Amino acid sequence: MTTLSDLAFHVLLALGDGPSHGYAIGKDVDVRSGGRLDPTTGALYQVLRRLAEDGLIAPAEAPDKKDPRRKYFALTREGRQAAAKEAERLDALVRTARRRKLYPERA
């Protein structure tokens, strides 16, 4: 598997606590990224489709069944592993930045 894009990683993070629908995933990505990533509907669903094709997410049952039009998605085991691998990669970059005094240690 290749490195995840920022948007793909944020989508996996949004699904870390359980299944969610596209609109809620998009809002989570927007908030978690501090507005840096504000995915358009087209971009979000393109990433969702690609993640599903790669086996990292799968369709899920709607927990409340209030709106049958909403498509829910959930992380697969492979998706959880991919998110963990990406988090490890980013952690290694932060550790390197700290060693080179480009990013301060936490208090």
State the gist of this model.
The protein is mainly alpha-helical. Helices cover 52% and strands 9% of the residues.
Mean pLDDT, nearest integer? Answer: 91
The CATH architecture = Orthogonal Bundle
- Helix % is 40-55%
Number of structural domains: 1
Kindly state the number of beta strands: 3
Strand content: 5-15%
Structural shape: elongated
- Biggest sheet details: 3 strands, antiparallel
Q: Layout of SSEs?
A:
Layout (H helix, E strand, L loop, with lengths): L5 H9 L5 E2 H11 L8 H13 L3 E4 L11 E4 L1 H23 L8
Antiparallel strand pairs: 1-3, 2-3
Helix pairs in contact: 1-2
What does this entry look like structurally?
- It is a single chain.
- With 107 residues, the chain is mainly alpha-helical.
- It has one domain (6-99): Winged helix-like DNA-binding domain superfamily/Winged helix DNA-binding domain (Arc Repressor Mutant, subunit A).
- The protein is 52% helix and 9% strand.
- The protein is built from four helices and three strands; from the N terminus they run αβααββα.
- It has helices spanning 6-14, 22-32, 41-53, 77-99; strands at residues 20-21, 57-60, 72-75.
- It has a three-stranded antiparallel sheet with strand order 1-3-2.
- Helix 1 crosses helix 2.
- It is elongated and about 50 Å long.
- It starts with 5 loop residues before the first helix and ends in an 8-residue tail after the last helix.
- The mean pLDDT is 91.
